[in-house]
Structures are given as structure tokens and as C-alpha cells.
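Field reference: "sequence" (input) and "structure" (output). Example, SHS2 domain-containing protein:
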Amino acid sequence: MASLFGLFKKQNSIIGLDIGSSSVKVIQLRKEKGRVILETYGELSTGPYASKAVGQAVTLAPDQLALLIKDLFKEANITTKVGAMAIPLRSSLLVTIDVPDLPEAKLAQMVPLEARKYIPVPISEVILDWSVIPDMREELIGAEEPNAPTVTDKAESEKMPKMKEVEVLIVAIHKDTIKQYEEIARLTNLEAKFLEIETFSAMRASLYGSRGAMVIVDLGAATTKVVIIDQGTVRLSHTINKGAQDVTLAIARSLNVSFAKAEEIKRKVGLVEKVGDKDLGETLSPIVEYIFNEVSQVMVEYQKKHNRSVEKVFLIGGGALLPGLFDLAKSNVYAPVVFATPFDRVDAPAFLENILQAVGPEFAVSIGLALRALEEL
Ligand SMILES: Nc1ncnc2c1ncn2[C@@H]1O[C@H](COP(=O)(O)OP(=O)(O)OP(=O)(O)O)[C@@H](O)[C@H]1O
Ligand SMILES: [Mg+2]
């Protein structure tokens, strides 16, 4: 828990609030003469608010969350109630579909009908948004045509000429989810300027470099979220049902200790050392490898479909901090892997540089939210 610069006044300050399943993160930023200044940041685990251990993923009711958020704001010396909140990807739908290249008005009729196939509840219960993904062929000079037909495809298409297709990104959030977040805001007196699906916040805070294909891997407690972004647009999102909590559970089983003790050992030892005569690496590596093999598969599928190779993989989420994970990620994924460094986007005192570098991946979502909130102030 960091608690800094409590002396700052609230003028022009905003917060980004990321309510994760195992921990809630907040960051407070201020804009001054065009610079973005870090005022304070902090994090609190959700587990203890549901009589569970630190690091465990739990579902808290809005009133329990409100209690936690009030505690967090106090501990982190938050001095403003204006900001933005992230909506978890698991409460949203983010999908790209291929549709015929029709005029906008026709698409407006067709896309909601198509979206129904992916949305397990009546369409009236969700807020739906969509946009046509810009045709990358127009932007890429000298690149091969994506979706170039293979020999067998060609035979098919000669029989039945195919209409040109475009890709559409569909975004849906259940109205109940929005109500829940509004309720949390009400209970904490938070003036939420907007709610944003965490994926978009993470992109804003993490990505740098060219507009080539990038992957963000968010290692949360219960799940790992993989998103492919190309030319600045989300092209694919995929959730792996394994997360950093599974590593803790494996330690608890292997060493016959409680979850809380295992969590402690995980953060300190990770995959790299022995505990007594037990080599934790042997037990834990398969879990991490499982996750990154699936990341790799998603990348390969994307590459096959679009003929675009991934330039860089950014790791975010608390799970990315597991000692030893980085090397395993590097050896299991074909593209260069880096930790996201979202604090690079803010001005902070030099003495914090190392700690901010180390905890950066955990705060990617909250920082991304706060950066947008500052723009909209
Ligand atoms: N220093 C650390 N070393 C190893 N693991 C860590 C460290 N800090 C946090 N973790 C692990 O990170 C996980 C939590 O990550 P994070 O806070 O990103 O998840 P979350 O946002 O709560 O989850 P989600 O986004 O899936 O809702 C926990 O399993 C925790 O044990
Ligand atoms: Mg998270």
C-alpha cells in the first residue's frame, strides 16, 4: 500500500478505479501545465472482505465493495471523488465478426441481429456498441493481402463468388452490470465520469511502439485475459480459465500449507527457488506453461487468419509479478515479451522509479482509466 503526497489539494485531480476480483487498485493523477503528475496510488485485497485470504478471487456485493473502497481511499490518501471506473471483461462481450460489406444503415440493422448469437441474454438487457474495423489493406504498404485465399478456398470461391466482407467489433455490457457500478459509485460518493471495459484502459496505459499487431496478457487471479490489438484496434479477445490463483493453490497442495501461507511463498519464491527439498518450479511451471501455450495458440490463429505476425507481447496484472514467470513466458511465446510500464506515462519522484517499475503491470487498468479521465476533465 503506497500513500504519497497527501498534501496535494484536490484541484484538477482525478482517480482511476479498477475493481479486480482479487484486489482493487486506485490511482490519482493531476494535470499541470500539460504534464501528468502522479499524486498517489494504492491497492487493497478483496479476499479479507469476504473472510478469504489475500490473493483469492471473490465476488463482493456493492455494499462490501463500498466499504473496501472507502478503506482504500483512506489508506492511499485519495483526495478527490471525480474519476472513472473499469468494467471487467468477464461482465462484457468483446467480439469481432465478419459481415458483408454493406452500407452503414444496413449494417446497423444486421449487426444487432448477428450479435444476438454471441449474447446469452435478451438483447434488450444489454448496451450494445459496434464499429467497423478499418480495412488494414488501405493502411499497409507492401503487405500481403490478408485472408488471401488458399488453393482450396479458390476452388470454393469459383463455384460461389464471395461477397466482400468487413470485420465489425461488437461491444456489449449487461445493463445490470452498469447498474451495479452506478450503485458502487453512489455508495462511495464517487462521481464516475465514465465506465470503460478494462481492456480499453489497459491498452491506453500499456501499448507503445508501432501500430503493428500487439498482444496484452492480463494475468489476474482467476483468469488470464488475452487481447490482440492491431493498428490500434482490438481484433480479438480470449479468456483462459487459469490464473495466478491456481499457482497459489498448487503451492498450498504441494507444501500442505494454507492458501494465505502459499500466497506469501508464491510472492517471495515463485518459480525460481527451492522450499526445503521441494523444487516449486517443477510443480508450478506446467501451470504457467499451460497459460502461455494457450496465448501462443491464440497468436498463431490470428497470424494465420490475417497474415500478420505479433510484434510484441505486453504482460500486465498482478500474476505477471510472479518471480520466474517472465522467462517462462519468453520461452513459450514466439514474439518478444515485455512487462507493461504504465507509470512511464506519468511524472513521479525519482526515488519511486524502481517500485513503480515493479508494480506497474498491476496498475495498467487504473492508469489507463485515469489518463482518459484527465483528458475529459
Ligand atoms: N508480487 C507478486 N508476486 C506474485 N504474484 C502476485 C504478486 N502480486 C500479486 N500477485 C498475484 O496476482 C494476482 C492478482 O492479480 P490482479 O490484481 O491483476 O488480479 P485482479 O485484477 O484482482 O483479477 P481480475 O483482473 O482477473 O479480476 C493474485 O493471484 C496475486 O497472488
Ligand atoms: Mg484485473
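Residues 20, 220, 317, 365 surround magnesium ion (ligand 2) (CB under 6 Å).
The first helix runs from residue 62 to 75.
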